[in-house]
Amino acid sequence: MADFDDDANLDSSSEEDNAAEQAAQFEAELARQVSQLPPELYETMKPLLLLGSVANHMLLGHSEDPVPQALKELLEYDLDALQTVTAAVDTPTLGRVMAAHTLELFDFIVIGRLVFESSLDEPLRAYLMRHSAAEDAFTGPRDYLLTFGESLLENITHYLTGANPDMHEELHMRRLQTESIFARLDDTLRPFYPTGQSPDELAAAALDAADEAEDQQEAAVHVTFNEGQRVTLGTALRLPYILAELGETPFARALAGVARLRKKALERLAARLASSVAEEPFGLTWSELLRMYQAAQVCALSAVTDVLATGSLEDMMYSSAAAEEQTLEEAAAFAHHAREVITIMMAGFVEVVEVNHPDNEEVAEAKAEISRLAELLAE
Known about the structure:
Layout: H1 2-35, H2 41-60, H3 66-75, H4 79-86, H5 91-100, H6 102-116, H7 121-129, H8 133-137, H9 141-161, H10 166-185, H11 199-215, E1 221-224, H12 227-246, H13 250-254, H14 263-274, E2 281-284, H15 286-304, H16 313-323, H17 328-356, H18 361-375
Antiparallel strand pairs: 1-2
């Protein structure tokens, strides 16, 4: 038995030595190949790699979508494979990718070209136009990737099939299968953007910036609020975006489209109101006054109307009070009183605005906008 164990140990040691020797030979050959590359190779290929990276990320960012899923199943190509290629930052690291991860680089180029030829082409080019640095290095990113990408694919094919002619057909089929995935599933493609870079996010950011600039103007009015009014109006300012985010009814969903009830502007005004001192004049710019005016109307409606398809604010306060082990009569009385306080305070602020600005077109338009939304509650 001892002799058997010795033989096993010798075999294991021999295998480890062989593996180490092969790894050393591979590294030596890799280093030799990399040393023969022109030093400027990475800078020459950098525009192609950058464009391919953006195209691949726009596709693979939605990893759960049909095309990324099909590519992973067919090619084992996913965000990890993409990371392997984009990890190249200079000629030596690019050389290692070309030698050790040639198939990943092949797929990277094929997929990048196909993204530019798919329904993602328009959003991809629009995204690139926002980052003009890519345009400065060469003319026509799309044509550049299609042309030079094809040349690189030919070089990769030649490299891989030099010692293995059968590999040529395998690469050809690999490319055809990838093209077939895009052709069959093109209508499922949707662009993925880095956080804050989607067209909707950029448009929202521009609107938020415009709101902030408006709100930084000189105060148009000064209003003195007592503590109860400060708290209640602060709640009213937060209510529209809470309802819009829940979006259970047409009314709640429509709130998201009210220009003066955007979340950041409401949060900013609510925070300023919360930090103010009761019984001292509180300055409001004209935009803030209209914002609070509309928020007060929404709050008043919500107090008595089922804006969430689950009941009004009075219903919610009743349920909350009942859950705290109050009697049903006590809960009902509490909710009714709270509703009355809210509606009186909201109606009071609305009336102050309308009395002081009886002929102002913007006030009339702001009121009409909320009235149109209120009509959705009757549908």
